[in-house]
Automatic annotation (TrEMBL):
GO molecular function, one term: N-acetyltransferase activity
PANTHER family according to UniProt: GCN5-RELATED N-ACETYLTRANSFERASE 3, CHLOROPLASTIC (PTHR13355:SF15), GLUCOSAMINE 6-PHOSPHATE N-ACETYLTRANSFERASE (PTHR13355)
GO biological process, one term: UDP-N-acetylglucosamine biosynthetic process
InterPro entries: Acyl_CoA_acyltransferase, GNAT_dom, GNPNAT1-like
Domain N-acetyltransferase, chain residue ranges per copy: 67-227
Protein name: N-acetyltransferase domain-containing protein
Pfam families registered for this protein in UniProt: Acetyltransf_1
PROSITE patterns given in the database record: GNAT (PS51186)
């Protein structure tokens, strides 16, 4: 009777606590209707540049920041070139009415209301034509042996709904189906838990990614060129006079 009274009083013995329901804060909101495309032609480079800005995501490892901590807009010509040479791109679309970040005028312009009202908009499948770009990721590869995943991002209002994981899973599916298994993801410490949840971990060969960081502020050598890399100045070996074929 004591146990029964304790249960009805809102208390559970420790051996039963693992069966309790998750709290409201632990329940992840379900994602809206999505369309995930791996067709590069579905990506509008201007819309993608806007997504970079909304996500405050930079292609530079050392981006320039304004007074509000926002990164500089990505160069549209370089972005188009990067898209052209990416091995896999994954773009996520949903209808504008599911994106709180959008202005009301953009929501009303979806073209899915009219005869039948909002009901038509709810039943018509999402496509790149009627949807809004809300997520993106890409991979570069040598087409045979190795690949690396970059620029995985989701619009802030739709994060923590599993959309980022869907992007990575779609990219991995394409790579593995093409017999590419040596797949890396260059990420920050803050991004490690996300990629860990997507199946990434420390390299079993204990290899470490090293980046070229020779700073022009601490080195001064002849036959070197100074190049800008975001906020850093790097020394780049010159090809003049020493190139023999």
């Amino acid at each position: 009777m004591a146990v029964a009274a304790a249960v009805h009083g809102g208390y559970l013995p420790s051996k039963f606590r693992r069966f309790t329901q998750p709290t409201v804060s632990q329940i992840r909101p379900t994602p809206p209707p999505l369309f995930i495309s791996t067709n590069p032609n579905d990506v509008n480079s201007i819309h993608l540049r806007d997504l970079y800005s909304v996500c405050n995501h930079s292609c530079h490892r050392f981006p320039k920041l304004n007074s509000e901590g926002r990164v500089e807009p990505v160069d549209i010509d370089k972005l188009r070139k990067a898209l052209l040479h990416s091995y896999v791109v994954a773009s996520v679309f949903t209808r504008p009415e599911f994106v709180p970040d959008l202005a009301p005028e953009n929501v009303s312009g979806s073209g899915l209301t009219g005869i039948g009202g909002d009901w038509i908009g709810k039943v018509v499948p999402v496509t790149p034509g009627n949807g809004e770009l809300v997520g993106f990721g890409r991979a570069v590869s040598d087409s045979g042996l190795t690949a690396a995943i970059y620029d995985v991002m989701v619009i802030p209002s739709l994060r923590r709904r599993g959309i980022g994981r869907k992007i990575v899973q779609r990219i991995l599916r394409v790579l593995v189906n093409r017999d590419i298994y040596d797949i890396a993801a260059l990420c920050s410490d803050q991004q490690k838990p996300f990629f860990g949840a997507c199946g990434f971990g420390d390299d079993v060969l204990v290899s470490t990614t090293m980046m070229y960081t020779r700073s022009a502020s601490t080195h001064s050598e002849d036959e070197q060129m100074v190049k800008c890399a975001g906020r850093k100045l790097l020394l780049v070996p010159s090809l003049r006079g020493n190139l023999k074929i």
